[in-house]
């Protein structure tokens, strides 16, 4: 592995248990639960709840959640905690309302929040602690206050106008009309009361009663179509993960409506090239990775949707003959000029956290309100900031991801797990909306092909492409020579004004008996253990 200049921090080591999250307070909450006898699922939900308070620009109880749980014996299970569009949100009804595009800041972008139901169902299936127990830290921070972290403050600053546009959001997330600075102590009293209700009564306190009425009334005042029945009907989906071997390890993702299998498509394409001799931050490596991404994302955009509306399951996209056909379009020496749609058919802003406990159970969990502060609509009495995941729907009739009542949208958030010899080996995930499949491939190839440890793999410079224009975006740590080399291969490259994504990872090193963790310095990440 070659050295590179990028943001970084020390790799974390622990012999017993570890939590890696995007915020120190969440990692501390998870560690507290672990040391108090809770397991990895208990700790993960506790951390997710804290993040829903202290990183409101990224996550919240008004958002969705996905998780993969790997037990020490190799048993793997997944949960899809994403909510559907309101039943009344049919193409015909939206057309009657004159909706020609889904406004990401409008009521039709708000889908049913699934996170709270997912937390409860995860605990019931795998945990040792009650929802009441694991919400204590989150309630305390919402009620008594927390200091705004630097990265959170940076994101907050970019969203003053968005928050100002909604009375509920302005009251909850602005101070005298201004965004809080780093170190400002923020309190969210309405959110604290809602969390207390959930702790006392369970998820039903969110999906029924006063909180549900507040959400429905808030959206109705803006022309939204969500009803009390939509909220009361929210159920999670147990999911059998999909996996694919990559150079000796089994990479595990959740099936649609999430885009996890797109990461597996990317890895299947990259496996057809010898990456190990390449410079991990050189033009040749980034060229192959981003060309694989361009193909895989084109597959996603044509076919990914609620699985009930897809013509093909993930296995069709992971077949060797299909991947061979896609990989044949890639050249190590030149950029693809086009990707014919006919080629792509088979023949027939977010928080991520990882926890591994002393028994070897590993949890990979991701929770999101989608864009910064979601829709920007906050139900004022309950303090619930509502996601805008419905902006991922299309309005194109006949497209598998066209919005319809009760349908789940294409989802960008994806947890991941890696198994080795039938046992949990690496629990990891990447934040950053559409970047996530590319980020999964980047982190994993950093480790498998280039021998990096989790922290090195996370620290390494990143590139992505504009999903509309395919122009490459380079973090400022990408060497100038790499950018020049990519341009010589036919790519247009621009600097990224913001860091690209974020990540957490925990490696279970059975040879040394250590857990080895990494967290992202691009966020306020923290990996700690005992």
Overall 3D shape: globular
Which range does the strand content fall in? 15-25%
Largest sheet: 7 strands, antiparallel
Mean residue pLDDT = 95
Rg on CA atoms, Å: 22 Å
Secondary structure: helix percent: 25-40%
Indicate the structural class. alpha+beta
Q: How many individual helices?
A: 20
Distance between the termini: 29 Å
The residue ranges in which pLDDT falls below 50 over 5 or more consecutive positions are none
Number of strands: 21
User: Strand order of the main beta sheet, please?
Assistant: 1-20-19-15-14-9-8
Structure description:
It contains 20 helices and 21 strands. It is of the alpha+beta class. The strands form five sheets. Strands 1-20-19-15-14-9-8 form a seven-stranded antiparallel sheet. Strand 17, helix 20 (480-488) and strand 18 form a beta-alpha-beta unit. Helix 1 packs antiparallel against helix 2 and helix 6 (136-144) runs antiparallel to helix 10 (189-201).
């Amino acid at each position: 592995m070659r050295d590179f200049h990028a943001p970084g921090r020390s790799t974390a080591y622990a012999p017993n248990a570890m939590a890696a999250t995007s915020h120190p307070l969440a990692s501390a909450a998870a560690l507290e639960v672990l040391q108090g006898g809770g397991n990895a699922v208990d700790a993960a939900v506790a951390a997710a709840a804290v993040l829903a308070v202290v990183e409101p620009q990224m996550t919240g109880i008004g958002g969705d959640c996905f998780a993969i749980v790997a037990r020490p014996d190799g048993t793997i299970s997944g949960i899809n905690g994403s909510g559907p569009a309101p039943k009344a949100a049919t193409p015909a009804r939206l057309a009657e309302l004159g909706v020609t595009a889904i406004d990401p800041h409008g009521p039709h972008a708000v889908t049913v929040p699934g996170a709270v139901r997912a937390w409860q169902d995860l605990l019931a299936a795998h945990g040792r602690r009650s929802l009441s127990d694991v919400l204590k830290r989150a309630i305390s921070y919402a009620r008594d206050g927390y200091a705004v972290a630097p990265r959170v403050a940076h994101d907050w600053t970019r969203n003053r106008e968005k928050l100002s546009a909604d009375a509920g959001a302005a009251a909850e997330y602005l101070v005298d009309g201004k965004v809080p600075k780093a170190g400002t102590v923020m309190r969210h009293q309405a959110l604290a009361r809602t969390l207390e209700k959930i702790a006392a009564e369970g998820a039903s306190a969110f999906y029924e009663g006063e909180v549900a009425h507040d959400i429905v009334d808030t959206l109705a005042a803006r022309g939204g179509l969500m009803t009390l029945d939509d909220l009361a009907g929210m159920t999670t989906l147990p999911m059998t993960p999909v996996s694919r071997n990559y150079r000796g390890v089994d990479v595990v993702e959740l099936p649609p409506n999430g885009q996890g299998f797109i990461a597996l498509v990317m890895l299947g394409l990259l496996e057809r090239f010898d990456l190990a001799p390449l410079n991990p931050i050189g033009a040749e490596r980034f060229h192959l990775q981003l060309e694989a991404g361009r193909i895989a994302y084109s597959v996603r955009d044509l076919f990914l949707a609620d699985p009930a509306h897809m013509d093909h399951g993930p296995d069709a996209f992971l077949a060797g003959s299909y991947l061979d056909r896609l990989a044949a379009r890639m050249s190590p020496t030149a950029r693809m000029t086009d990707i014919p749609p006919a080629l792509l058919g088979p023949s027939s802003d977010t928080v991520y956290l990882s926890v591994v406990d002393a028994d070897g159970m590993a949890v990979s969990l991701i929770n999101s309100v989608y864009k910064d502060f979601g829709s920007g609509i906050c139900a004022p009495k309950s303090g619930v900031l509502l996601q805008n995941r419905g902006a991922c729907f299309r309005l194109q009739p006949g497209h598998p991801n066209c919005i319809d009542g009760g349908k789940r949208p294409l989802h960008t958030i994806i947890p991941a797990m890696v198994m080795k010899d039938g046992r949990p080996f690496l629990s990891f995930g990447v934040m950053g909306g559409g970047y996530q499949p590319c980020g999964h491939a980047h982190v994993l190839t950093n480790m498998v092909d280039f021998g990096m440890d989790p922290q090195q793999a996370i620290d390494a410079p990143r590139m992505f492409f504009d999903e509309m224009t395919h122009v490459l975006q380079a973090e400022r740590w990408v060497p100038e020579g790499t950018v020049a080399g990519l341009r010589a291969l036919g790519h247009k490259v621009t600097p990224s004004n913001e860091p690209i994504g974020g990540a957490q990872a925990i490696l279970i090193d059975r040879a040394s008996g250590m857990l080895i963790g990494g967290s992202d310095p691009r966020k306020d990440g923290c990996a700690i253990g005992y």
